[in-house]
Amino acid sequence: MSAEQTDNLTETSGRRRSRGNATYWLGLLLVGVIVLAGLISFVWTPYALSDMVGGRLEAPSLQHWAGTDRLGRDLFTQLMIGARIALIVGCGAVVIGAAIGVTTGLLAAFATRFLDDALAAVFDILIAFPTLLIAMLVVAAREEASLGTAILALGIGLSPIVGRITRILTKQVLGQDYITAARVSGTSWGAIVFWHILPNIAPFLGVNLALQFGLAVMAEASLSYLGLGAPPPNASWGRMLQEAQGTVYTAPWGAILPGLALFALVIGINLLADGLRDRFDPTKGAA
Amino acid sequence: MSDLLTVRDLRLSTPDKVLVQDLSFSIAAGERFGLIGESGSGKSLTSLAVTGLLAPGLRAEGSVELAGTQVIGAPERRLVGLRGNAVATVFQEPLTALDPLMPLGRQIAGPVRRRLKREGAETSGAAVRAEVMALLEQVRMPDPARLIGAYPHEVSGGQRQRVAIAMALACRPRLLIADEPTTALDVTTQAEIVRLITSLVDELGIALLFISHDLAVVGQVAERVMVMRHGRAVESGPALQVLTQPQDDYTRNLVAAARRFDAALEGQG
User: Fold this and answer.
1) Considering A24, A192, B102, B152, which has the largest number of Cβ atoms within 10 A of its Cβ?
2) Does the predicted interface ipTM exceed a cut of 0.95?
């Protein structure tokens, strides 16, 4: 490779890197604000969640930063608690989805031809159903809407996508020479999975799990919108949207603010995931 | 049976094609054996069959006896014990043969730790690290203290291949398989790696199975050679004899072509 080419390469990767950094910081800011709001809600909120503290449908003011709802409850309080619920459901769903998905995905990649084909078909069939539909079925099967049910339902809904990606990534890594090299030097399969496969699929899988987190947050909002999410006294952005639906022309802030919060969290987590991948992939842009 | 590796009537096939047939050879302890052949002649398949790493769709028949153990049809558990202990491999492309996300030192530490455990020696972090440093010095790695924490993409191709050799030697195998170890390297680095491999196997008394399509390289390394074509052995014997007085037409063509190539390079063509 000529010196000129090398220069070009480093220049492109440098530009890529700085752009990656900008989106990373923006993502961190968006997610950070929402995480902070969620954390603070544990110790302090402007008002109590279900207290009627103001008039009906008040516009945002110094007393009520985000206005009030139909029953005169403070919307900013609901937004903060909603952030907490969104994060808990998102994290919980991703943890459950990853636990089921990564395990079955690895199993499929290592299994015999027949079991592999069977599991791959199961993943594909399950993916054909929308995540939300699977989650609704799980909620229906549990016969009661609760925070735990919502997390479980979304986790199960996400798992086939995670499983399919894990299977494909693992197969890709399994075909690499360094796996053969590890096997030929007498490494056991357990050690290969732990030391070679998981670290090598982690960057891609991590980014994908972040995308799934975004999907889970959206799906939680949808479940709550349909009345299948965490029931009161929990607040949820999805239910706030649903309650504001009737008054969207007279009091638009009731719908706009939770919508914006949802948008910020999902966009933020995606940008953050992209930035993290660029930062932690040692094969990109030497230090 | 004093030979370290004995291959008898090896036949490798897919359901609709025979890839290797009637292959027999043996390597004595400490001997350097060369396997020559064009792409697709079955050289690499043969080396995979020796380590029991054939792809699932391939059928192996015949006998491969490595250090007194029959490899063909052996359960995976027995093979894991054999690999590293009896045999280790250096691959063609060191960039893909090293885990891109693991520092070089840790890649060598894995097999080192397994060997120390096997030998019942101390496996503390310090002991492993000392052994890794010793190995890096053994493969004449410049500045090992720095490279121990580097990732594969941060070092040169020749250095990567040295690390791959260190990984293979970390197991203290009795047979080292080098599958086209110099093909991905430039000519000067090639010569260094060839010298390194030859001197190391002599120093440590390890037998060598050297696979290459490059007659000149095999001629430098091997004491005995076998020429393969279309999955069959066409000629075998002492390296000097096969490469200077080839008996088979194919070998004769190969040698003549290599000579013409050399002559053309030197501007006498």
Assistant:
1) B152
2) no
